[in-house]
Structure formats: structure tokens, C-alpha cells
Amino acid sequence: xxxxxxxxxxxxxxxxxxxxxxxxxxxxxxxxxxxxxxxxxxxxxxxxxxxxxxxxxxxxxxxxxxxxxxxxxxxxxxxxxxxxxxxxxxxxxxxxxxxxxxxxxxxxxxxxxxxxxxxxxxxxxxxxxxxxxxxxxxxxxxxxxxxxxxxxxxxxxxxxxxxxxxxxxxxxxxxxxxxxxxxxxxxxxxxxxxxxxxxxxxxxxxxxxxxxxxxxxxxxxxxxxxxxxxxxxxxxxxxxxxxxxxxxxxxxxxxxxxxxxxxxxx
Length: 266
Hints:
Blueprint: H1 2-23, H2 26-42, H3 53-67, H4 80-85, H5 90-101, H6 106-113, H7 117-134, E1 138-142, H8 146-158, E2 162-167, H9 170-180, E3 184-187, H10 197-207, E4 212-216, H11 221-224, E5 233-235, H12 240-250, H13 255-262
Parallel strand pairs: 1-2, 1-3, 3-4, 4-5
Helix pairs in contact: 1-2, 1-3, 1-5, 2-3, 5-6, 5-7, 6-7, 9-10
């Protein structure tokens, strides 16, 4: 039982993220996760089921949500992405969450929702177009390599978001952030003139909370300094899928978690 419980705990952050997005509420999402974990611990699953455990629990979360009536109540205070997703057909929304938020393949998402893979692909395409139509994030690129900066900017624009500018130094980044108040930054660590993206992120955090995704050839630097809380890391060379998925995940950071992390001592 201890091994089984420990194995479950490895999946807990992903289950909470999905369930909160699924229900539209941190409290309801966590309650749903608790019920799903209790269900699994009381089951006679011996670990020989072909389906991955996390997928089994995603399936259970969906079933529990359906038992409660499904859907996400609309609210004027909803996060813009949540509001956009709230306009979707429920299956379209779940395909989007599983693929874009949880990095589940389209084929696996189709299996979890008991629909054909072709239908899942169509639903995903429709959902992405709807989200793009409802939401535009303003993103700051902090990267001193012009080619990489251009690639990142093109990827961001391809998602339907806006680029407020590209900075190669700390001063440029802070100036652009003050002028345009971006909602997210893509940040290299080693910048021009010897500047360091970690210090840029810490200064932006001191001024106001700004989610940061580090895109760097030095992915271990944050961990070595105990600063992993500053943001997720995508190692170079990166793929466009990695950037798109990281941006999607960043906008789902719960507001309460943002405030708590922003308050960390620096």
C-alpha cells in the first residue's frame, strides 16, 4: 500500500492541474482529485492494467465531473483562458485540456474520451481556433540571439499572441516590461553585456508578478541556485511544440499560487 500511495503522489500535481482546469475552481478541482484518489486506493487494481495510471485517473476525474453535472460555470472574474474555454463544447474543452495542458497525445486523449482519433483531432483544431479568437497574451522575449528571438516571436504570433518587444539586456527588458505590462516573458539566462536572465526575473518579481518561462542552454542553473520557483525551464535546442505547451501551461497558473510565489524572499 505504501508503494501504491507513493506512486500516486508522483501524479498528484498533474491531476490537480487538470482537475482545477476541468472544474474551473481550485477548491472543486482538489475535491475531485481527493475522490479520484480514494476510488483508486479502494480499487483492486494490481498495476497490470495496460492504461497508464495517470490516464486512468484522468478518466476517473472526467467521470466524477460528469456525475456532478459537468461544465464550468461562467463568471466575470474568470481567467481569460478559462473564460474562452468555457465557451467550448465540453468534449472540445476536454480534448484541449488533455493535449495542450497535460501533454497527452491526440490518440490517447481520444481513447480517454471514448471518441475516434479523427474526431479528437477535429475537436482540438476547433478548440484552438476558438481560444485564439478569444485571447491574446502579450509576451516579452528576452533573448540576445537575434535568430532565436525571431524563432520564438514567430511561434508566439503563430499561437495568436502578441509580442511587445525583444530585449537583449536587463535594462531593455525592464524598460519594455514597464512600457507594455506583458502577461508572460520568455527568458534566456545568459544575456548580452554579461546580464543574467535570472536576475531579470527576480527584479520583475520584485516589481510585480510576471510569469516567466526560461528558454536556455543552461537548464541546470536555476536548480543549482535553488530558484526553480521562478519558472519552468525549456532547454535549448527547443521545439515549437515545447514553447506552445509551456505558454499554455503558464496561463493556467492559479492566482493564489502566483501571489504566494511572488512573495518569496529574494
